[in-house]
UniProtKB/TrEMBL annotation:
InterPro entries: ADH-like_C (IPR013149), ADH-like_N (IPR013154), ADH_Zn_CS (IPR002328), CAD-like (IPR047109), GroES-like_sf (IPR011032), NAD(P)-bd_dom_sf (IPR036291). One of its GO terms (biological process) is lignin biosynthetic process. This is Cinnamyl alcohol dehydrogenase. PROSITE patterns: ADH_ZINC (PS00059). The keyword Transmembrane does not apply. One of its GO terms (molecular function) is zinc ion binding. Its cofactor is Zn(2+). It comes from Linum tenue.
Length: 276
């Protein structure tokens, strides 16, 4: 339709590919309504504004946020889902501007690597918990993680017991929560932002003996998203991405289903001649 008085028209340049897109396309959660066009991590340039959006530069447009000029448009796209998904639990638990805490990040994928960047930018001690020993070097040397625990290593898990104040679980694959909960201190909190397809295994004793809390997390509102974007601009935080052309979307989705992606795929719509 035509651009309305309260609308902005955007030329879409980039779109991230999220695990949610895969779940929705395949109706993994049983809630998909077809036809569906997956894709919600979108960045672009405003080409037209309605009569009533003069204040957009003051950040008062309802469903649009500014991408700071210090961030690349392609690597900023996944911040609109992956970024805000991990930012909101940190904000909800006063971990944006707070004394140094020991936080854990479960999984070093599309969400997890951004969580590590946020945790370090906000001054915390960050430990990555992963099933892949091969990711330790990158977690420590490139992302700046302070610690790394291989969740399948009993000795490492035992040594990590009751060392963390807060854990952010970003894993979408099926996994048990009991051993990970043991890493929390007494009264510690775990927030789950991944969305496994099957119910999570949760034994009672790690909850009872540690007086621990498990919560769910989800993306934030527009105000929080703009706050996150501004902080990303301040700390030069963006996502690590693999850029693909629209012609390769199906291939990228298949790779994502097999976890064959380094952090995040982003579709380069601007640089393609494809007729979408």
């Amino acid at each position: 339709r035509e651009n309305g008085d309260t609308d902005v028209t955007i030329e879409i340049l980039y779109c991230g590919i999220c695990h949610t897109d895969l779940h929705q396309a395949k109706n993994d959660w049983g809630i998909t309504t077809y036809p569906i066009v997956p894709g919600h991590e979108i960045t672009g340039i405003i080409t037209k504004v309605g009569k009533q959006v003069e204040n957009f530069k003051k950040k008062k447009k309802r469903y649009v946020v500014h991408v700071p000029e210090s961030l690349p448009m392609d690597a900023a796209a996944p911040l609109l889902c992956a970024g805000i998904t991990v930012f909101t639990p940190l904000k909800d638990h006063n971990l944006i501007e707070s004394p140094r805490k020991k936080i854990g990040v479960v999984g070093l994928g599309g969400l997890g690597h951004v969580a590590v960047k946020f945790g370090k930018a906000f001054g915390h001690h960050v430990t990555v918990i992963s099933t892949s020993p091969s990711k330790e070097k990158e977690a420590r040397e490139r992302l700046g993680a302070d610690g790394f625990i291989v969740s399948s290593n009993p000795k490492q898990m035992e040594a990590g017991k009751r060392t963390l104040d807060f854990i952010l679980d970003t894993v979408s694959a099926d996994h048990g929560l009991g051993p990970i909960l043991e890493l929390l201190k007494v009264n510690g909190t775990m927030v789950i932002v991944g969305a496994p397809g099957k119910p999570l295994e949760l034994p009672a004793f790690p909850l009872l003996f540690g007086k621990r809390t498990i919560k769910g997390g989800i993306i934030g509102g527009m105000k929080e998203t703009q706050e996150m974007m501004d902080l990303c601009g301040k700390y030069k935080i963006s996502c690590d991405i693999e850029v693909v052309k629209p012609d390769n979307i199906n291939e990228a989705l298949n790779c994502l289903a097999k976890n064959d992606v380094k952090y995040r795929f982003v579709i380069d719509i601007a640089g393609s001649s494809s007729n979408l």
